[in-house]
Design brief:
Layout lengths: L2 E7 L2 H10 L5 E6 L6 H10 L3 E5 L14 H18 L4 E3 L11 H10 L5 E4 L4 E2 L2 E2 L5 H11 L2 E5 H10 L4 H9 L5 E4 L33 E4 L5 H17 L3
Parallel strand pairs: 1-2, 1-10, 2-3, 3-4, 4-5, 5-8, 8-9, 9-10
Antiparallel strand pairs: 6-7
Helix pairs in contact: 4-5, 6-7
């Protein structure tokens, strides 16, 4: 059976939202900043009795696994995530492959960093077209396949990221989604987005351009799905129910 979760940051507003949604979710994904105090997170997990998965701080927080000059910061951020995963008994750590911010940033540099700091819990995430003002790595299935093959990492498939990258490059988004699913992900990021932005808008399902009804039969019925959507309780509960019903159709 599928497990559905929500993504949060470790702040008071997000934690209040999590407490409201506790009865509707099966797990929680939390983004860990470098050198973050994890003690409150351990207490929250104990009080809510929910499994947690981990997301490494991404380019917004200054990290970039593709840039060798930032190796120290990248390693510190990833080690903090490994520590959090140890404390919370998490089996997933999601990592972005990096930004093409300068000439140093290559997929080979990203692969080298991920191999040197490998952990069996690491999941590489596919990216949209642009982020933080730069082109992103891991936009295409071939990029993700290369990273998986050369590092041994598992795959976190972000549906919206695939959709916006395909639209930005004139490709069929549903064909690209199928190509990514052929890589065998069991962990997913879910949201809606517009076709023209080039970035993931993180909209609640039904507020953007993705037709999730077309994905019936593609999304695995036993996958884990993290909603990276706006923290608005009513539409959030509605979209959780929608995805559960959609996945039930995969059982027919």
């Amino acid at each position: 059976m599928a497990e559905l979760g929500i993504k949060i940051y470790l702040n008071s507003e997000n934690l209040a939202y999590l407490r409201k949604m506790r009865d509707a979710v099966d797990f929680v994904e939390v983004l860990i900043r470098p050198e973050q105090d994890l003690t409150p997170l351990e207490k929250i997990q104990q009080s809510l009795s929910l499994p947690f998965t981990i997301h490494m701080a991404h380019g917004v927080f200054g990290t970039n696994p593709a840039d060798p000059k930032l190796a120290g910061l990248n390693k510190k951020a990833l080690e903090c995530c490994k520590d959090a995963a140890d404390r919370l008994s998490s089996d997933v750590i999601v990592v972005h492959p990096g930004l093409i911010a300068n000439d140093r940033c290559t997929i080979e540099s990203s692969i080298s960093f991920l191999k040197e700091n490998f952990d069996p819990r690491l999941h590489i995430e596919n990216m949209p077209h642009i982020g933080c003002g730069f082109l992103l790595m891991g936009r295409d299935p071939d990029n993700i396949r290369k990273i998986m093959d050369e590092t041994g990492m598992k795959f976190c498939f972000d549906v919206s990221h695939a959709f916006v990258h395909a639209c930005a490059t004139g490709q069929d988004p549903y064909h690209m989604i199928r190509d990514f699913i052929d890589l065998g992900p069991t962990y997913f990021h879910i949201s809606d987005t517009t076709a023209t932005s080039g970035v993931d808008d993180h909209l609640c399902l039904g507020m953007g351009d993705i037709d999730y009804g077309r994905l019936v039969g593609l999304l695995p019925k036993d996958g884990r799905y993290t909603f990276e959507t706006q923290h608005i309780e009513r539409p959030a509960r509605k979209e959780l129910l929608f995805l559960r019903r959609l996945l039930d159709k995969n059982n027919l």
